[in-house]
Specification:
The complex is a heterodimer of chains A (about 450) and B (about 425).
Chain A lengths: L19 E4 L5 E6 L5 E9 L7 H11 L9 H10 L3 E6 L3 E9 L3 H14 L4 H19 L2 H14 L11 H5 L3 H11 L6 E6 L3 H12 L22 E5 L5 E10 L7 H13 L4 H9 L3 E9 L5 E10 L3 H17 L4 H18 L3 H13 L6 H11 L2 H11 L6 E6 L1 H11 L2 E4 L1
Parallel strand pairs in A: 2-6, 7-11, 7-12
Antiparallel strand pairs in A: 1-2, 3-5, 3-6, 4-5, 8-10, 8-11, 9-10
Helix pairs in contact in A: 1-4, 1-7, 3-8, 9-12, 9-15, 10-11, 11-16, 12-14
Chain B lengths: L12 E4 L5 E6 L5 E8 L13 H8 L11 H7 L4 E6 L4 E8 L3 H13 L5 H20 L12 H4 L3 H4 L6 H5 L3 H11 L5 E7 L3 H12 L22 E7 L6 E7 L7 H15 L5 H9 L5 E6 L13 E7 L5 H18 L2 H18 L3 H15 L4 H10 L3 H11 L6 E7 L4
Parallel strand pairs in B: 2-6, 7-11
Antiparallel strand pairs in B: 1-2, 3-5, 3-6, 4-5, 8-10, 8-11, 9-10
The chains are: A alpha+beta (about 450), B alpha+beta (about 425).
């Protein structure tokens, strides 16, 4: 009997975007691609700010909240109103290694938007009253974050994996946040918000060469220099015991499992990405199918690779019913064990391959998606050609490659497990499965 | 004088199949991807008493096998061909979405047609998805701070009828009581082709996509289309207040719900309210943000929205303008007094420049939304279903530009008053 299910042809190849690539005299690299469709554009400015010193997390957290709170010529309110009048938006975020200033705007206001962004980057003044307001808000936000079990679990996992390394810091300490002074923010700004290793990516309905000229006009006066230290590669702990964080009365348990992974630049990354996808990277993955669609233990289980400069991390996450916490962990371990002991089916590999190829192509269809992805690639030392090379690398991966890479990265003994849940309810069964350490 | 603002120029085509299925298309060949959205005119405001959460539970069952396909097969086909699919249940509709490489267009249409033709319902899949939905509710409501704030907890204060007031996620008791027979009846009643709109956007050729839609959906038999639920209820004549203790919340929060004009019957008045919402509390440049967060430091954050799910145009009457605040530094009454003052001030002093700035931001946000092929399918499908006018997606910037400061001030004067509003206070557990 012939199938009623329509056949699917090979996807139409994505046209590689062409980026104008120009480096200003002060070192700022500018990449611009024309992507019309809607009369807007997206901008991402990525700059390395790694320092690794004490108090860095809280300081950066307040810094990103106050970067847009004033310059010598605009108050925070004027910045917000001016952006709105341009049909624009601007915001910043930071991790332990880099600061990203991201925004977007109507194309007709390109020049004014870039002038505003340049002014902020050069001349942010961190007014004391604004710093006081935002510091207090960050403290309140941290209280909110710490009341979320997923955040508690994520913090516990990175602490257990990385210890005192900057990657192990998690949500900043509210007392340290409360003590961040404007002078420290200005020093960070003066010392490290510098164009030397920065990249500006702009994608949208813009003329490429005129946009590069406008960036030059707006950012050319940004003084060169600045120093950052690459973070050292963290040593990853692999304790044999499970860490159980008590959350009395919790109706669910948050399981988080982590370990090291490979960066995108590694020749074996494509094989690892496919292994992680087959295991838990999409809805029809083995793990989600098992504990959601077969057993109903969870709303969803996921695994993914999180990319950072000094080291990539593998994370497995599932929020499961309290009474099936140990049972869920048994299934997670079973699925990990299957990945390292038997080759995946060819059909599973092909499905995961097409999924990664297809979703990458979809992700870069929008101005925002393309700008963010290119900014990520460039700051990782890769280029636009990755959009072509990665699908090709995925194409070559075999079931043996997946087994090989799974044995190195998905082996249960190489991974660290944290559970946040009601310890009195979930502890006995977890202890029956293996060594359990209580902690925070 | 209308301002010059960029406008979207989506190509829009529509036709209706003999079985009543309405189709709206936005061909755009700039990227080799397509978005498909199927809107069924049934949401949680359609649920009968004793079956809270059923519309959402049923949405889950729509992924558990269909006429030709076993459980899990549709997801496997979509993801295994480079796409994504999902579903979502809202007050007034349930939508099924997928985003695919354009060479998988026919597959995507086949899958939607296959489940419009019929779902496979077994006790096993029903029990499995009841468990999954309970864990979904645990993740999103029971095990987190401000779970259900305010979409679950404000409606029972603002409204009195079951349809408008009840919890759309459902009670565990009602979910447990669901049967295969209920599901089968629900499908027969609400999932008729004439009760749905199919929207397709992206890399399609008009003639070809029409032929595919006719081939896959054309033979699904027509069924009676249910009458829409009667959602009407009069404007309250008093302020209604309610409280909830949230053991996980670190600070007090308040939601204020104001009834608003009928989005469809009074479109101009409604649009003035949408602009008003942004003037009042749409982002950092807004009046309430500046006053409560920056000047007086009473609130950690403030926001506003029209409708329960963030999109003003997705709900029928009755809907609301909701102002949300998290305020460690003040009581709810202190915050409410500031809102009343700001409403009064806005009625008196709103001028053209401020409205122009706010509308520019709104138009820019609308355009940004339309950059994604699936969002385009969703936008045109949604307005086509409730208004028969997908073109509104193109017209919205022009309509917003015509909203005058006087209209916004009048809307504030008429709708944002103490009488008739609903106030939900969330108290942190430590305050109990």
């Amino acid at each position: 009997m012939t199938s009623v299910i329509p056949a699917v042809g090979k996807p139409r190849p994505m046209r590689l975007p062409t980026f104008g690539d120009h480096t200003l005299a002060n070192g700022l690299r500018v990449l611009v691609a024309r992507r019309p469709g809607i009369p807007r554009f997206e901008a991402r400015l990525v700059l390395p700010v790694a320092h690794g010193g004490a108090g860095e997390g809280p300081r950066l957290r307040v810094f990103t909240e106050t970067l847009l709170s004033g310059t010598p010529t605009r108050t925070s309110r004027e910045i917000a109103e001016d952006l709105q009048a341009l049909g624009g938006g601007l915001g910043s975020s930071a991790d332990a290694e880099q600061l990203v200033l991201g925004g977007s705007c109507l194309s007709v206001h390109r020049r004014a938007f870039l002038e505003l962004a340049g002014e902020v980057v050069r001349d942010a003044s961190f007014p004391a009253d604004e710093v006081a307001i935002e510091r207090e808000r960050v403290v309140q936000e941290i209280a909110l974050l710490r009341s979320q079990p997923g955040v508690v679990a994520g913090d516990a996992l990175v602490r257990r994996l990385y210890g005192t390394h900057a990657y192990g810091q998690g949500t900043p300490d509210p007392e340290a946040v409360a003590s961040v002074r404007p002078a420290a923010l200005r020093a960070l700004h003066d010392g490290r918000v510098r164009p030397g290793h920065a990249v500006m990516v702009i994608v949208g309905d813009v003329d490429v060469s005129r946009t590069i000229e406008d960036v030059e006009a707006a950012f050319g006066q940004w003084q060169a220099g600045g120093a950052f230290r690459e973070l050292g590669r963290p040593k990853v702990a692999t304790p044999s015991s499970l860490l159980l964080v008590d959350r009395p009365g919790a109706v669910q348990s948050n399981i988080r499992i982590g370990g090291r992974a490979l960066p995108r630049s590694d020749p074996e990354y494509a094989a690892l990405a496919l292994a992680v996808t087959v295991f838990g990277g999409y809805f029809t993955s083995r793990l989600n199918d098992n504990i959601r669609e077969q057993k109903g233990y969870t709303y969803g289980a996921h695994s993914r690779v999180e990319h950072r400069k000094a080291m990539a991390q593998l994370t497995v996450a599932a929020d499961v019913g309290r009474d099936v916490t140990a049972a869920s962990l048994v299934e997670v371990t079973y699925e990990l064990g299957r990945m390292v002991s038997l080759p995946v089916e060819q059909a599973e590999l092909d499905a995961a391959r097409r999924y990664l190829q297809g979703t990458m192509a979809m992700g870069v269809q929008t101005q925002a998606g393309l700008a963010s992805f290119i900014a990520t690639l460039v700051s990782a030392g890769l280029g636009v050609e990755y959009l072509r090379d990665y699908p090709a690398a995925l194409e070559k991966v075999t079931v043996d490659d997946v087994l090989d890479v799974s044995r190195r990265f998905l082996a249960p003994h190489a991974l660290t497990t944290v559970v946040v849940g009601d310890a009195s309810a979930v502890g006995p069964a977890l202890r029956a499965l293996g060594e359990v350490e209580r902690g925070t | 004088m209308p301002r010059r603002l960029p406008r979207p120029k989506l190509a829009i085509e529509r036709f209706t199949l003999p079985n009543g299925l309405r189709v709206v298309l936005n061909p755009d060949r700039s990227a080799p991807v397509v978005g498909i959205a199927v809107y069924y005119d049934v949401g949680f405001r359609s649920e009968p008493e004793g079956r809270t959460g059923f519309a959402h539970l049923f949405e889950h069952l729509m992924f558990q096998g269909s006429h030709h396909l076993d459980k899990g097969e549709a997801d496997r086909l979509i993801e295994g061909n480079g796409g994504n699919m999902n579903g979502s249940t809202h007050p007034d509709f349930t939508v099924y979405i997928s985003q695919l490489p354009s060479t998988a267009l026919e597959l995507g249409l086949f899958l939607e047609a296959d489940r419009m033709r019929g779902v496979r319902l077994t006790d096993e899949t029903l029990r499995n998805q009841i468990d999954v939905v309970k864990e979904e509710i645990n993740v999103n409501v029971n095990n987190r701070p401000y779970g259900g704030f305010p979409w679950i907890d404000l409606p029972p204060i603002m409204f009195t009828t079951f349809n408008n007031a009840h919890n759309g996620y459902g009670s565990f008791v009602d979910l447990e009581a669901a049967t295969v027979r209920d599901a089968s009846d629900f499908f027969d009643r609400y999932y008729a082709p004439g009760n749905a709109v199919l929207a397709v956007a992206g890399d399609v050729e008009m003639g070809a996509v029409r032929a595919l839609i006719e081939r896959h959906f054309g033979e699904i038999p027509a069924r009676p289309v249910p009458a829409p639920p009667n959602l009407h209820e009069p404007l309250p004549k008093e302020e209604r207040r309610g409280q909830k203790v949230d053991e996980l919340a670190p600070m007090p929060a308040t939601a204020v719900g104001y009834r608003v004009p009928d989005p469809i019957a009074e479109p101009d008045e409604f649009l003035a309210v949408v602009v008003l919402s942004e003037v009042l509390a749409g982002g950092e440049a807004s009046r309430l943000y500046q006053r409560l967060v920056k000047e007086e430091r009473l609130a950690a954050d403030v926001g506003a929205a029209v409708g329960s799910f963030g999109d003003p145009y997705e709900m029928r009457d009755p809907t609301s303008l909701q102002v949300l605040m998290w305020h460690p530094g003040a009581t709810a009454d202190e915050i409410l007094a500031v809102i009343d003052e700001e409403v009064e001030r806005l009625v008196e002093d709103l001028e053209g420049g401020e409205v122009e700035r706010v509308v520019t931001g709104m138009v820019s946000g609308h355009l940004r939304h339309l950059d994604n092929v699936l969002q385009r399918a969703m936008e045109i499908g949604m307005v086509e279903q409730q208004r028969g006018r997908a073109e509104l997606v193109n017209e919205l910037p022009g309509l917003l530009a015509e909203v005058t400061p006087g209209a916004v001030a009048d809307a504030a004067d008429r709708w944002l008053r103490k009488t008739g509003r609903a106030v939900l206070e969330v108290l942190p557990g430590s305050a109990a």
